[in-house]
Amino acid sequence: MPAMRTLREQLDQARQAYAARRYPGDLVNELLPRGLGRSARILIAVTAAASIAAAAAIAVILSNPFGRPSSDTLPLGQPVVQAMDMQLPPMPDLPTGMSIVPDYQAITLPGMPSFPSMDAGASQEDTPTTQEAV
Amino acid sequence: MDPSTIQAARNGHRDAQAELLRQLQDVWFRLCLSLLGDAGQAREATQETALRFLRDLPRFAGKSQLKTWAIGIALNVAREMRREKHALRSHDRSIKPPSPPLGPLALAELSEQCDFLRRMLAELPDRQREALLLRYFEDLSVDDTALAMNCAAGTVKATVYQALRSLRQKLVADRIGNDVG
Is the pTM value of this prediction over 0.90? Predict the structure, then answer.
């Protein structure tokens, strides 16, 4: 049984060497994301609360800028609905006592204008002109 | 491992998860190193194991010890990586000359320490090496080893017996060889 004893000794030695092996690193740092510190968590909480408060204030101001809305001011965001009078005015009365057809009037054309005669011009040729008179 | 820590880790508490990872990282690494034979691959396998461990922790039913369950995850990861390595090696064999079965780091470590048994362990079939590592190196019971290896307890006993017999034969042959030499 020396082989068996030697095998057992070898197994023990190998087991010691096996147990001495260590992972060359840190799985926690390699795989798990780091958590935030306490101060960082407080800072984030304060910032978030301030943001929410500011958003709420802006919402209140936008929805109600000058107190209660008066009757003159129109509410924001609502369509303007105005009543329109769609009744047509009554038809006008036709005038009475008037004849549509005008009264008869006789139309007379003026006489044809008479053109001056050429003979009358020829008789005036003896009259000297102004230059000739001078 | 503390049950309250396990429960807190299952509920997603970071500190509890970190505590479990610190307790398991060396177990995972030395197991993967012994199965894969390469420190770089063993580190990668350890990280992958840890990710799957954290992912599946809420579904841990508690039917076994957490360490056994965690070792089972590491075994599966190491088997997958071994299959990928064999597939790559068989693919590269048509192009390049065959590479040694162990990585350069593991070979250097082996040659430095002249550890006969570890060389013999590396030559064992994968299932025998797994069973021997879990049973004698991680001190798991037969039932826990069977749970981690996802096989029957009888299979574990038979596999460990075959592994020890094979080692003994190799040891005897080595001694005879040394005496003749």
Answer: no
